[in-house]
Amino acid sequence: MKQAIYWLMGERAGRTIVGTWNWLWGIPVESGGRVAVSIAEESLQSMQVSVQKLAEAVAMQVGSYERAKKKYTEKVQELRKFEQQAALAQQSGKTDAARLAMTKAIQIEQLLPQLEGQVKQAETFVNASKDKLNRERLKLEQYKTDMENMKDLAEINSALESIAKVNNEFDIGSARSSFESAKNAVEGRHLRSNALAELAENPNEKLAADLDQLTIDDEVSRRLEMLNPSTLESSVE
């Protein structure tokens, strides 16, 4: 599916579409989680493929340059050969042969500037392509390092999130606060109940009850006093 999107839309647009699709499912790249790492890995793989293609293109340019340079060298050698043939034929009195050889030499001589320009242009292109390839390779190595750092950072973030989750699930401070609130509520209700009980009691009834209790206590004491032996003897006499 993903490769089909890349093929239809191109790598850059394809990655954008895939990222948007992840966002629609609620897993945006900006979350910085596994999705971001996964998309970064996909982008790194795409860059690796692009650098490989660039290296192949540079290799083809180098091949063309080497062929052009070889062709130029061969033409220079042919020029020298025809010039030598013309000189030998001239020395031997073979005028027609000398003219023919010199004609070919002149034709090659007229062609050499064009070949030389093509060779220089090919060399310029090759050097530029090599420089670009080297830069892209350096960038790729940097991205590989960033990728490893990104994975490590994502793992650390995941660990920190797990720690935060555990702390939230086992929030002792929150439980302690709830306990203190419950304790204060119970103690407050006890005080209110005592206050209500005291307010509900009739003061006059309490005084009467206290007097009755004092009377009973006094009577009990008197009766007990009567039970003492000395008291009994005096009462008999």
TrEMBL record:
Gene source species: Petrachloros mirabilis ULC683
Cross-referenced Pfam families: PspA_IM30 (PF04012)
Name of the protein in question: PspA/IM30 family protein
Family per similarity comment: Belongs to the PspA/Vipp/IM30 family.
Coiled coil: 126-153
Keywords (A to Z) from UniProt: Coiled coil
Keyword Coiled coil: yes
Residues annotated as transmembrane: none
Keyword Cell wall biogenesis/degradation appears in the UniProt entry: no
